[in-house]
Write a structure and sequence with these properties.
The protein is an alpha+beta fold and about 325 residues long. The protein has 3 domains: about 120 residues, Rossmann fold (3-Layer(aba) Sandwich), CATH 3.40.50; about 60 residues, ATP-grasp fold, A domain (Dna Ligase, domain 1, 2-Layer Sandwich), CATH 3.30.1490; about 110 residues, D-amino Acid Aminotransferase, Chain A, domain 1 (2-Layer Sandwich), CATH 3.30.470. The protein is about 25% helix and about 30% strand. The chain has 8 helices and 19 strands. Strands 1, 2, 3, 4, 7, 8, 9 and 10 form an 8-stranded mixed β-sheet that branches. Helix 1 packs across helix 8. It starts with a strand and ends with a helix.
């Protein structure tokens, strides 16, 4: 089996933390050939979608009490080849946000390949529609009180109603740009003008959940079913628990409330072709739905000792038509 991974440049990936690397290794361990390219290397030739890609040979990795131990170099690569996307059994779109023009064009080419029978994870059209903040709104009954608006007066009224809030840019990732604000703070109006770019861009504002001091939970779903979870505890002096912002991973189990959220999301995710997804939960509340390049595999495997990437790939291959 041959699988193509479309990611950011390989030197930018962190093999001790990156779920894309974990999935590549799982594909190789299952006896498949791993190919890699950046999304801008996709091509259309008379309607057929191709890619300029390289085969990879990934070095084995192991983890101990200190985390994952990475050999150097951790990969070898072969010569660049032009390959039709139809020659791959799976194509993974794993480039990190933002979902900018380059991402949109790549997703359009992948959608054409999908119409020709290529299996793409996740479905390209859904990658564009399911904004990682806005998509959670369809499950608003599972969320803390939330407003999305670019109107400063409306946002101020919401903040005065809930007193303590979190402000999130809609195109943010990894905790970047997330702010905590209160109705009593000086300069609130100026802050809202700044984050909305003078009322030109909407932002998400949510009631602050004190439970976040104890951390949030990243839950990975494969075909709508939970496959593993990791708790992320914020570092001292910060309320953001994202691992990219210094949050510390801890082992955890799914609660009854987690299971309720997962069941509510399962069928809508499957219908949308979103088969590898990471959701964020704070206490009993859904926070975000991550569909572009969800992370957490490495931390779950390290803390639990369970080969979750292998399990994810097995489930995905078992659902191939």
């Amino acid at each position: 089996m041959q699988q193509l991974f479309l990611t950011d440049p390989l030197p930018r990936l962190q093999p001790a933390k990156d779920s894309s690397v974990a999935l590549m290794q799982a594909a190789q361990a299952a006896g498949g050939q791993v190919w890699w390219a950046e999304p801008q290397q996709l091509q259309a030739i008379d309607g057929d979608i191709a890619v300029l890609a390289r085969p990879l040979d990934l070095s084995p990795m192991h983890h101990d009490s200190n985390g994952w131990q990475v050999p150097e170099p951790w990969y070898g690569q072969g010569a660049l080849e032009q390959r039709p996307l139809a020659s791959f059994q799976l194509v993974w779109m794993r480039r990190d946000p933002p979902v900018d023009a380059a991402y949109t064009f790549a997703a359009g080419l992948l959608a054409e390949a999908e119409r020709g029978g290529v299996r793409v994870i996740n479905r390209p059209s859904s990658l564009l529609i399911w904004n990682e903040k806005l998509s959670a709104l369809q499950f608003s009954q599972l969320m803390a009180p939330t407003m999305v608006s670019g109107d400063c007066l409306s946002l101020q009224a919401f903040i005065h109603q809930h007193q303590e809030v979190v402000i999130k840019p809609l195109e943010g990732r990894g905790g970047r740009g997330i702010l905590r604000a209160s109705s009593a703070m000086a300069g609130l109006k100026a802050l809202l003008e700044l984050v909305t770019e003078q009322q030109q861009l909407p932002v998400m504002v949510q009631a602050f959940l004190p439970q976040v001091a104890q951390g949030d939970k990243r839950i990975l779903l494969v075909n709508g079913e939970p496959i593993g979870a990791v708790k992320r505890r914020p570092q001292m002096g910060d309320f953001r628990s994202n691992l990219a912002m210094g949050g510390q991973p801890e082992a955890c189990c799914l609660t009854r409330e987690d299971q309720i959220i997962c069941r509510a999301l399962a069928e809508p995710l499957r219908r949308a072709g979103l088969v590898f997804v990471g959701i964020d939960v704070i206490g009993q509340w859904l926070s975000e739905i991550n569909v572009t390049s969800p992370t957490g595999l490495r931390e779950i495997e390290w803390l639990s000792g369970v080969p979750v990437a292998d399990m994810a790939l097995e489930r995905l291959m078992g659902s191939c038509p």
